[in-house]
Amino acid sequence: MSLQIWLAFVGACLIISFSPGPGCMASVSAGLAHGWLQALKLVAGLQLALFLQMGLVATGLGALLVASPSAFLTVKLVGAGYLIWLGFGLLRQSGQALQVDEQSVPREQLLWRGLLVNMSNPKAIVFMLALVPQFIDESRPQLLQFGILTATMVVIDFIVMGGYAGAAAHFRRWLATPLAQRWSSRLFGSAFILLGLLTLWPARG
Question: For 139, which DSSP code?
Answer without folding.
Answer: T
